[in-house]
Amino acid sequence: MRIKICGITTVRDAVIAESLGADAIGVVVCSESQRNVTLKRAREIFSALKPTTEKILVTNTKSYPELELMMAQRPDAVQITHPFEFRKRPPVRIIRAVKPGMKELSGDCDAFIIDGSMGKGMVFDRNFASGFINRTEKPVFLAGGLSPENVGEAVRMMNPYGVDVSSGVEKSPGIKDRKKMSEFIRICREA
């Protein structure tokens, strides 16, 4: 199972998450979020990571020019919430965020992330998550209110391709807690 630590705002937290066993690091850009950083900061964070750690830019922008600018940074993937349509294959992998009540999204992506929380710590909808995971053949990440306290049960019940955590492993918005990250990753590996 893949583990993504999202909402990283510092090089230090990214390197710690990687050293603890995170498979992917998510950095929020071009968004109205307490965890938003500049593209320059995102490059600094990603450049401190090993080549094997997946680097994902996360955004809720509705601007295609901003999306193009993010893709030009050449992260491993860009995670989007807006239903952008692509005429040709994007230069990076695309992860589409889905949540209950959302209009069915295009399958022109490489993976989905179930995330009705958007970094606010609201627990995911189990019925929606289970149904969505069973409906698609694409990899599905589970997010929304995950923490060391509930991720083991969520993984056992949903069997997602991966999990994504942000606020559930923080001291304060954008500042990660080493102990919580370590515990989250350990529980995921054991589940």
TrEMBL record:
<keyword id="KW-0057">Aromatic amino acid biosynthesis</keyword>
<dbReference type="GO" id="GO:0000162">
    <property type="term" value="P:L-tryptophan biosynthetic process"/>
</dbReference>
<dbReference type="InterPro" id="IPR013785">
    <property type="entry name" value="Aldolase_TIM"/>
</dbReference>
<dbReference type="GO" id="GO:0004640">
    <property type="term" value="F:phosphoribosylanthranilate isomerase activity"/>
</dbReference>
<dbReference type="InterPro" id="IPR001240">
    <property type="entry name" value="PRAI_dom"/>
</dbReference>
<protein>
    <recommendedName>
        <fullName>N-(5'-phosphoribosyl)anthranilate isomerase</fullName>
        <ecNumber>5.3.1.24</ecNumber>
    </recommendedName>
</protein>
<keyword id="KW-0413">Isomerase</keyword>
<feature type="domain" description="N-(5'phosphoribosyl) anthranilate isomerase (PRAI)">
    <location>
        <begin position="3"/>
        <end position="185"/>
    </location>
</feature>
<comment type="similarity">
    <text>Belongs to the TrpF family.</text>
</comment>
<comment type="pathway">
    <text>Amino-acid biosynthesis; L-tryptophan biosynthesis; L-tryptophan from chorismate: step 3/5.</text>
</comment>
<keyword id="KW-0822">Tryptophan biosynthesis</keyword>
<dbReference type="InterPro" id="IPR044643">
    <property type="entry name" value="TrpF_fam"/>
</dbReference>
<dbReference type="InterPro" id="IPR011060">
    <property type="entry name" value="RibuloseP-bd_barrel"/>
</dbReference>
<dbReference type="Pfam" id="PF00697">
    <property type="entry name" value="PRAI"/>
</dbReference>
<keyword id="KW-0028">Amino-acid biosynthesis</keyword>
